[in-house]
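User: My collaborator sent over this chain with a note saying "see what the structure looks like." That's all I know about it. Can you take a look?
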Amino acid sequence: MSNQRPQKPTLTGQRFKTRKRDEKERFDPTQFQESIVHGLNQTGTDLDAVAKFLDASGAKLDYRRYAETLFDILVAGGMLAPGGTLSDDMTRTDYCLFTAQEDLETMQAYAQVFNKLIRRYKYLEKGFEEEIKKLLLFLKGFTESERNKLAMLTGILLANGNISASILNSLFNENLVKEGVSAAFAVKLFKSWINEKDINSVAACLRKVGMDNRLMELFPANKRSCEHFSKYFTDAGLKELSDFARNQQSIGARKELQKELQEQMSRGDPQKEIILFTKEEMKKAGLTEQTMIGIIWASLMSSVEWNKKEELVSEQAIKHLKLYSLLLKAFTSQGQSELSLLLKVQEYCYDNINFMKAFPKIVVLLYKADVLSEEAILKWYSGGHLNKGRSIFLEQMKKFVEWLKNAEEESESEEEETD
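Assistant: Without extra context I'll predict from the sequence alone. Here is the result:
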């Protein structure tokens, strides 16, 4: 028997080289930039030729990898360093957005170049939006003329749906806002956007991304008022944008006021205090009595958890509204306010099916509490009502209206006899 230990097995074999395709390619945009710059220098100011060159080059060059470089060149003529200055050691072209003529027609033509490029290479969409966001943050590094061109182009791209209005978030950068760059840029941007579409289309895009209530942020905190915004943009020829912002602020103020009133009612704050607070807020916000009574009604009906059973909800509603009749009376001093309240009651009872049968009881209660006059009820009945549940509610009110008319006739007869 041998005392020799068996040898340990060893691994043998050939070592393979890493395949070329598996090696991670080093990020080096130099050659890519040279190719794009060379092509743009050949096409010159012919933007149709530029679009064709970019279309063909996508098959040979790595647009996906060097998207930022591509867009930097098309906008500024070369790769941009942080802050918006051109990199010194790179090749540049004089044929780009920033060297083009500063007019709307030229910017529309450039927008078409970008539109064709992104439609041909869909994967560039996200990179292009990121590029615009970056360029907006670099605004201080550009000349006034370059900013104007970029603003016009951005407005056209927004109108065409090439980019989302969320890119405007970059304009709320503190340094840009403080130096007035954001507001000046926004003027040119919104002018070209509204020129392509209209204010309703612009408003819809802003609402979609939650930018409709943030336009005041284009100004520093000490100038962030509706009055300043309105004057600035109206003087710049954008009254429709001023009106839109004013309306948005008013809607926001109304929502906040409704929320506060609802909380006061839920806490059971004294009614006199609620009336005083509401009158002060109404004056501060410049709201009409008709608008205010609608807010009060919405607050009243939102401050209670209503019974799910139809037969019990009427009784609960009468009890609740009777408690706040003084508040309702304080804001129905005008006939139009009374009618506004009646329409709100009608709408609420129609939209909340459990309240359908409660409608006549609520109206009678408000009449007895001197919140609604017979004139307002008769006007509502004779044609001032909404179409929502019209036939049902008119039928419900028929007997009461007849009683009101008879009482009015008797009153007139008594007056004639006295005379």
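A starting point for your reply to your collaborator: The longest helix spans residues 239-267.
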